[in-house]
């Protein structure tokens, strides 16, 4: 049965955030809100967490997982970014974008796209997510909480708790966070390629 954490959307309770972070370090899979929609998250190197996310979402090995980062200093440890790409990403973050980039050796192999050796990264504009990332001190391995055969992700923490009670370990509820997933931009070829149009404005990348 999943633990349920009711977190204030503007002033997240430090003790609660610390408790969630401890759970993640102990191997927990959590459903948490972002600036686009809910996501599933686990510790960066958790093989069990990756397997559970794949199972819940029915994902194949070509799916791009996302490293949700607190800031650019953290992001730069895990992906290769030249000056032009850095400026383009910097102008759009924090925000509802996921960027696909060549991974560094810091990224566990099981997270990489099998052929491209790329990974998704993003810096969210969400108070609760940022508080959790600050407490963790490392990126959260994530994937949008979009269930198989459903067109829209779930947006209510209580609903996620009811439906996924036996497949996730914790649910963070801080109110509505929108229904649109992130806009995905692939920079792995140097020029921006719009992979998915979502919550982030694509005009700057067209």
Describe it for me?
- This protein has six helices and ten strands.
- It has helices spanning 14-25, 47-57, 72-75, 83-92, 127-136, 157-163, and strands at residues 3-6, 30-32, 39-43, 66-68, 97-102, 118-122, 140-144, 170-173, 183-186, 193-196.
- Strands 1-8-2-3-7-4-6-5-9-10 form a ten-stranded mixed β-sheet, with helices on both faces.
- A hairpin with a 6-residue loop joins strand 9 (183-186) and strand 10.
- It is globular, with a radius of gyration of 16 Å.
- It starts with a strand and ends in a 10-residue tail after the last strand.
- Radius of gyration equals 16 Å
- Kindly state the mean pLDDT as a whole number? 93
Structural class: alpha/beta
Strand segment count: 10
Report how far the terminal alpha carbons are from each other: 45 Å
Q: What topology, given as strand order, has the largest sheet?
A: 1-8-2-3-7-4-6-5-9-10
Largest sheet: 10 strands, mixed
């Amino acid at each position: 049965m999943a633990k349920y954490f009711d977190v204030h959307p503007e002033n997240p309770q430090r003790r609660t955030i610390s408790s969630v972070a401890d759970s993640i370090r102990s191997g927990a899979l959590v459903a948490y809100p972002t600036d686009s929609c809910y996501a599933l998250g686990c510790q960066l190197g958790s093989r069990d967490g990756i397997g559970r996310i794949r199972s819940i979402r029915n994902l194949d090995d070509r799916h791009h997982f996302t490293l949700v980062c607190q800031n650019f200093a953290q992001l730069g440890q895990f992906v290769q970014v030249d000056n032009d790409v850095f400026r383009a990403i910097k102008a759009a973050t924090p925000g509802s974008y996921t960027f696909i980039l060549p991974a560094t050796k810091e990224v566990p192999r099981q997270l990489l796209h099998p052929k491209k050796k790329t990974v998704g990264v993003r810096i969210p504009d969400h108070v609760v997510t940022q508080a959790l990332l600050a407490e963790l001190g490392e990126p959260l391995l994530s994937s949008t909480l979009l269930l198989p055969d459903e067109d829209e992700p779930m947006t209510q923490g209580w609903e996620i708790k009811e439906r996924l009670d036996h497949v996730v370990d914790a649910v963070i509820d801080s109110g509505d966070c929108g229904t649109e997933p992130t806009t995905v931009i692939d920079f792995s070829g140097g020029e921006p390629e719009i992979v998915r149009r979502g919550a982030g404005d694509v005009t700057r990348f067209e």
